[in-house]
Structure formats: C-alpha cells, structure tokens
Specification:
By secondary structure, the protein is mainly α. The chain contains four helices and no strands. It is flat, with a radius of gyration of 23 Å. The termini are far apart.
Length: about 140
C-alpha cells in the first residue's frame, strides 16, 4: 500500500520537533539582524535549494537505474561552436548548465547566502538608527 501523498511522512511528534527546529533557526536569523520576513525567506530559499538539488540528483539516478539509455535534458543539448558559441566555450571548460552537480549546487547556495548578507548589511544601519532614536527619546523623557 502506497502512502497518501497528501499526508505528512512525519509523525506528529517529529513534525512538532521539526517546527521547533525551524523556529530556532529563524529566531537565530532574526537575532542576527534579519527581519522576520527576510529570515523566513532565507531559510526557505536554502531549504528549497538543498531539497530540490537532492530530488534532481535522485531522479537522475533513478532514471538511469530503470533505463540506462535515458538522458536528462542537459545531456541532449546540441552544442556546437557555430550555433551556440558561448555554450560550446563553457562546455569546453567542463561546464554544464542545469546539471545537479557540486559546482552548480555551491553556486546557487552562495547566491542565496550573498543576498542574505546584503540584506543584513541593509538592516544594520536601520537597526542602529532605531536604537539611536530610542536612546534619544529616553534621554529626553528624563
């Protein structure tokens, strides 16, 4: 009997523990200076990137297991120096777009992390400005 795809594969206890772990991670990101929305988005982006990469790699492996002649779309691209000179040059350097390999995984993850770092840099001046205003207000109240 196959499990119902609409049901979580986690037990209620494990689902509760998982939610608490996510809460702790998002709390750490907020304490680190991100807004709640940015912390939630950063966590979600990393999770989707990691899980998506794993799923793609597994699908590729599974496809090869059942049909050794099957190929992913990137294995079927017709790349020639005449018709696609940039792709041909990249392929000559060992690059393949869209393949779930370590290079593409790390590049995507680094993009997410660099964007999150920029958000932190933007939040920092705003947080300092708010703290300064709060200090000024409390000084005036005395």
């Amino acid at each position: 009997m196959r499990p119902d795809p609409d049901q979580s594969s986690l037990s209620p206890k494990n689902a509760t523990l998982g939610a608490r772990e996510i809460e702790h991670i998002i709390d750490d990101l907020v304490k680190g200076g991100l807004s709640l929305d940015d912390a939630f988005d950063a966590y979600s982006a990393v999770q989707l990137h990691v899980r998506g990469s794993v799923v793609l790699a597994r699908l590729q492996e599974r496809g090869k297991k059942y049909d050794p002649t099957s190929q992913a779309y990137y294995e079927n691209l017709v790349v020639t120096p005449e018709s696609t000179p940039l792709l041909a040059e990249a392929a000559g350097r060992g690059r393949v777009g869209g393949v779930p390999d370590d290079y593409n995984f790390e590049y995507g993850l680094n993009c997410i992390l660099e964007y999150t770092s920029r958000l932190l840099e933007q939040e920092e001046p705003a947080a300092k400005s708010k703290a300064k205003k709060a200090t000024t207000r409390s000084s005036r109240a005395k």
